[in-house]
Description:
The protein is of the alpha/beta class. It is built from 20 helices and 16 strands. β13 (350-358) and β14 form a beta hairpin. The chain starts with 8 loop residues before the first helix and ends with a helix.
Amino acid sequence: xxxxxxxxxxxxxxxxxxxxxxxxxxxxxxxxxxxxxxxxxxxxxxxxxxxxxxxxxxxxxxxxxxxxxxxxxxxxxxxxxxxxxxxxxxxxxxxxxxxxxxxxxxxxxxxxxxxxxxxxxxxxxxxxxxxxxxxxxxxxxxxxxxxxxxxxxxxxxxxxxxxxxxxxxxxxxxxxxxxxxxxxxxxxxxxxxxxxxxxxxxxxxxxxxxxxxxxxxxxxxxxxxxxxxxxxxxxxxxxxxxxxxxxxxxxxxxxxxxxxxxxxxxxxxxxxxxxxxxxxxxxxxxxxxxxxxxxxxxxxxxxxxxxxxxxxxxxxxxxxxxxxxxxxxxxxxxxxxxxxxxxxxxxxxxxxxxxxxxxxxxxxxxxxxxxxxxxxxxxxxxxxxxxxxxxxxxxxxxxxxxxxxxxxxxxxxxxxxxxxxxxxxxxxxxxxxxxxxxxxxxxxxxxxxxxxxxxxxxxxxxxxxxxxxxxxxxxxxxxxxxxxxxxxxxxxxxxxxxxxxxxxx
Length: 505
């Protein structure tokens, strides 16, 4: 057994924990705390030792004990709240985050976390109020690199309609839903310092001074859901044209489904289904047949609410009665009516291929196959996992997408970059029998993660290439590092979000 440094007591226990010898660390901490029960740091160390052992209830108890002796500790409240969420104890987690807001009203994460927990408890309206209150007080959180950062990124995120939720399957449970692309797998948080600015109610136009940064990554991705945030971001960025920007908000505003149809309907080699935007108000006269006839759209059609993804609110309507039934149950708002184009590629199977464009280059992502027309990744652990030929097709696509889809289709795919005018965006498509690409979606709202690669190891190197390409784009475009400006009370740089994973180091 390797010798562990430390002079005994809490020091020895800490050394054991840092060496990964958590069982021994638990024993050492408990022995020490019998004689010194008021040591908050030791209680925290014991709590952290329990986490790798999956003893989360014990960890939560120890964090409670640590807080008893250090009741104003932001770090302890963050960690305790995180643990309680992971154990499913949302009521007590809400209590912790409420206390955190009281003690640290300028730290945004307390508000964000509380709003997510409130939503989990079914208090949706209250969650919205909490989120807006937090953003009004402190729209900035900073994820600081643990080493000298390669760049300081100002990441813009819109929360005009987006919201935070509990996502226990993620690397960290607090996840922003709707309207923004996720960056968790696009750049390494230990290589960059990320300054997150949450935009709501044009707050960015009144905020000053902004923490120093070398590049802006606009992660607001859905113009239907976060159009107001995008317009505010565009106005803000226009005041400093020298700063490099990934994904100009003006171009993101142009990426709605109906606008993409207008931009792409006459593009050689491309088939973009006709798309109509409908404004639905319950109780108003609605003649679906007359509307479709006037617009030259034939059944079947696809109906979906604007600003939704992953098949949410989406149906294929084969009859006028199905259209009318859909809207009879729909709430007020805007909807898309989309021409349905039959696209089976092998007997009764359907497929969807995805690419990302990063800095003008194409990167294949997935080749999904399913037995239903609305192809999504939900089937990966069922249909595709049990079907070798589907995986073989996906591997062939990932290894050489140009050869897989054919020269003409690949040329049509490449032409989309000059139309989208975005630095980062995704395209979901299929190749029709006539060689044209049938586009299902083209926007930056598609999420990149490594979660879809679980149980499919051949996906990992391709996912990593996407991450590497995005990071290379950031570092190549970022302005040279400037000396840090003195922090001010309004800068928000003191609002450091600390995850359990990071704090345990």
